[in-house]
Amino acid sequence: MRCKGTTKEGKKCKITRNLSVDGYCKYHQYQLKAKGKKSGKNEYQKYMASPEWKLKRSIVLSVLGKTCKLCGGYGSTVHHNTYARLYNEDLLKDLTVLCKGCHSRFHRKGKR
Questions:
Q1: For a surface tag, which of 8, 59, 86, 97 has the fewest beta carbons within 10 Å of its beta carbon?
Q2: Do 17 and 7 share a domain, yes or no?
Q3: Do 30 and 42 belong to one domain?
Q4: What is the pairing mode between strands 95-98 and 77-80?
Q5: Which pLDDT tens digit goes with each residue over 41-67?
Q6: How far apart are CA 50 and CA 11, in angstroms?
Q7: Could you tell me if 56 and 41 lie in one domain?
Q8: Looking at 49, 64, 86, which one is the last position of a domain?
Q9: Which three-class secondary structure string do you get for the chain?
Q10: Are 42 and 79 contained in the same domain?
Q11: What's the N-to-C CA distance of the chain in angstroms?
Q12: Dihedral angle of Cα 25, 29, 96, 45, to the nearest 10 degrees
């Protein structure tokens, strides 16, 4: 499957790997966001509620344990270290376990 995006010349995008759930490469996802079109947030929320994510989450929690990697408390949140391979995560490199407090602080810190 190829990306649904098109180049400035009107040709089809040639990227076939690491496509989002809605069928766009990272570049075209960014372009859609920049133009104010559908941001992909709905797609991400659908993914987070999907059986595929729930399976990945349970595997990460069973392998890494339910201990927050930052504070050592009870960790129940599986956090993305990177969104580079979103939807095709490497379970042990791209994901980690955090407690709800550390997860909230981590995301608040990034918005400053």
A1: 8
A2: yes
A3: yes
A4: antiparallel
A5: 678 888 899 999 999 999 999 999 999
A6: 33
A7: no
A8: 49
A9: CCCCCECCCCCECCCCCCCCCCCCCHHHHHHHHHCCCCCCHHHHHHHHCCHHHHHHHHHHHHHHCCECCCCCCECCEEEECCCCCCCCCCHHHHEEEECHHHHHHHHHHHCC
A10: no
A11: 38
A12: -120
Regarding pTM above 0.85, the answer is no
Domain range enclosing 22: 1-49
**Domains in the chain, number:** 2
Is pLDDT larger for residue 75 or for residue 12?
Answer: 75
pLDDT in tens, 66-100: 999 999 999 999 999 988 888 889 999 999 999 99
Structure tokens at 85: 């391979």
Report d(CA 44, CA 48) in Å as an integer: 6
Tally of residues, the chain: 112
